[in-house]
Amino acid sequence: MKRQDYLSWDEYFMGVAMLSAQRSKDPSTQVGACIANADHKILSVGYNGMPTGCNDDVMSWRRDGDPLDTKYLYVCHAELNAILNNDGGSLKGTTIYVTLFPCNECAKAIIQCGIREVVYWDDKYADTPAVQASKRMFELAGVRCRAYQPSGKHLGLNF
After folding, report:
1. Span 7-57, pLDDT tens digits
2. Which residues contact 10 (CB under 8 A, 6 or more apart)?
3. Backbone angles phi and psi of 17, in degrees to 5
4. What does pTM read for this prediction?
5. Distance between the two ends of the chain, CA-based, in angstroms?
6. Annotated active-site positions, please?
């Protein structure tokens, strides 16, 4: 008889997104993303961080102050990184698993590359204009959004 307590596909892909988030060097917000196709194959992953070639030891991670001295104008979001990290194959019809609901800029990229479903862990910025715009665009473009439903399983990793 086969094992019964294995991970569902949603648990697996959200777990990969959560693990990817741990690569982020952002001291306040770690976000991860995992893109999977209908055959349950991972096509790409990403996390929020500074663009390649921009030394994250010298870039600012601040949240307040002059916009040019904060992280917001520089950090590449997890969703965009996952899209850009894809090895050139089509993302049409895929699902993106994200630990935080996408902002409006990431929503545009998600729509443009053909991702058809967003599964998200947290929607803590639901009341912001950026997320409201994302939801409006997703609805207009026919991108399905659904909250991840935690199963309560616990998985411990020791590194």
Report:
1. 999 999 999 999 999 999 999 999 999 999 999 999 999 999 999 999 999
2. 97, 119, 148, 149
3. -60, -45
4. 0.95
5. 31
6. 79
Helix ranges, the chain (H): 9-21, 78-85, 104-113, 129-141
Residues 48, 117, 126, 17: what is their CA dihedral angle, to the nearest 10 degrees?
Answer: -30
Per-residue confidence (pLDDT) for residue 88, from 0 to 100: 85
The 42-47 sheet, strands edge to edge: 42-47, 32-36, 95-100, 117-122, 144-147
The answer for residues whose C-beta is within 8 angstroms of residue 43's C-beta and 6 or more apart is 35, 36, 37, 86, 87, 89, 91, 94
Q: Which two tokens stand for residue 99?
A: 């630990």
Reported confidence tier of residue 158, pLDDT bands at 50, 70, 90: confident
Digit-coded pLDDT (tens) for 129-141: 999 999 999 999 9
CA quadruple 71, 68, 127, 145: dihedral positive or negative? negative
- So what's the pLDDT on residue 5? 87
Q: Which residues have C-beta within 8 Å of that of residue 8, sequence separation ≥ 6? A: 151
Q: Is-contact 98 33, C-beta < 8 A?
A: yes
Whether 62 has a pLDDT exceeding 90, the answer reads yes
